[in-house]
Amino acid sequence: MSSITKSSWPFFFIIAISFSSYANAALFDIRNNCPFTVWAAAVPGGGRQLDRGQTWTINVPSGTTQARIWARTGCSFDGAGRGRCQTGDCNGLLQCQGFGQPPNTLAEYALNQFNNLDFFDISLVDGFNVPMEFSPNSGGCSRGIRCTADINGQCPNELRAPGGCNNPCTVFRTNEYCCNVGRCGPTNFSRYFKDRCPDAYSYPQDDQTSTFTCAGGTNYRVVFCP
């Protein structure tokens, strides 16, 4: 180490920090099993067209929070990656830089949090567009989540949207459904989602039965139309 001058320390420090953040990174395998093309989206990660049976793998740094993966449907993009999607659109970009427009089924996660646990869930708080599975596939963690009900086909008339089924918060924008202030509980509309996908978030404060954990360093898979 004596051969490393002080002027070299910042460089080696930056390399060490960079290596550390990726040493415990999580791999997410995203697969499209739908009988139609979807445009997978991820923040962080960007986006990619996935025809039936295709897979996209993203590498997410340790400590990442407020992350999500979803499917976009009914998309059309030009050669510059600009266009529009019927569901899940993220500001008209193929490579998403922000969250998608409802309705869209969400895989949400935060890595290496309290006690070095990963927290993950499927959320219908932004509505539903395609069935989804979100499961760990390494590290001995085996409890996954599925939401595969025919939510679009049975969607209440008030929540129907082109290509999907809206959550009531998107439609009515009231505190009763959006939980913007204070505590709130389930509603008849949120129960529609919960009855069909009991492990998924049906309203913003639906934490007790909808959040799952694995040890940090676990890898995951997200399957559209499992």
Automatic annotation (TrEMBL):
The record's family statement is: Belongs to the thaumatin family.
The residue range of the signal peptide is: 1-25
- Please provide the record's keywords in A-Z order: Disulfide bond, Signal
Q: SUPFAM superfamilies in the record, alphabetically? A: Osmotin, thaumatin-like protein (SSF49870)
Instruction: Tell me what organism the protein belongs to.
Output: Penstemon smallii
Protein name stated in the entry: Thaumatin-like protein
Does this UniProt record's set of keywords contain Signal?
Answer: yes
Pfam families given in the database record: Thaumatin (PF00314)
Q: What is the lineage of its organism?
A: Eukaryota, Viridiplantae, Streptophyta, Embryophyta, Tracheophyta
Q: Which positions form S-S bridges? A: C34-C225, C75-C85, C90-C96, C147-C197, C155-C165, C169-C178, C179-C184
Instruction: Please tell me whether the keyword Cell inner membrane is annotated for this protein.
Output: no
Q: What domain of life does the native source organism fall in?
A: Eukaryota
